[in-house]
Amino acid sequence: MRLSKKGEYALRAMIALARNEESAMTITQIATSQTLPKKFLEQILLALKSSGLVRSKAGPKGGYELAEPARSITVGMILGAVEEPISHTRTANNTDENLAPSGVLTLLEDIKLYVRNKLETVSLQEIADEAVTAQDMEALMWYI
User: Fold this and answer.
1) Rounded to an integer, what distance in angstroms lies between the CA atom of residue 126 and that of residue 144?
2) Which DSSP string corresponds to 28-97?
3) CA-CA distance, 9 to 15, in Å (whole number)?
4) pTM of the entire structure?
5) What is d(CA 41, CA 14) in angstroms, rounded to the nearest whole number?
6) CA end-to-end span of the chain
């Protein structure tokens, strides 16, 4: 699995909203605070909104805010809104039989399950409480 820029930016946008739960943030405020491209962020926020993770408010104090408390939103929920599901590596013709020996398949399934469980247990609040730097976000870009 590789965390895409879309996934990284979604996490960073959600961290910004979690750290500013008292009031809504405009797209410009989120983009500026996290150094994100505004156009791409618009698409990401729409996906997060359609997944029910954020809501938008109109008006002079409008913008985006979390739809639920940060402690009840998991990293898995955020990534699920913008990323493809976690799957194991496939060969060119997309068949499991070509991933012999079967021990490799078992190992890949165990890794996939571990990653999925980890993503579902880490809350947005946990990562928002930490001082997540750009270097820390880069560490989230992993390969399995």
Assistant:
1) 24
2) HHHHHHHT--HHHHHHHHHHHHHTTSEEEE-STT-EEEESS-GGG-BHHHHHHHHSPPP-----TT--GG
3) 10
4) 0.77
5) 11
6) 5
What mean pLDDT comes out for the span 117-136? 78
Residue 9 has pLDDT above 90, yes or no: yes
To the nearest whole percent, how much of the chain has pLDDT over 90? 53
Distance CA 25, CA 56 (A): 9
Token pair recorded at residue 14: 């959600």
Residue where the block lists tokens 């965390």:
3
What is the pLDDT averaged over residues 21-27? 92
- The two tokens of residue 4 are 């895409």
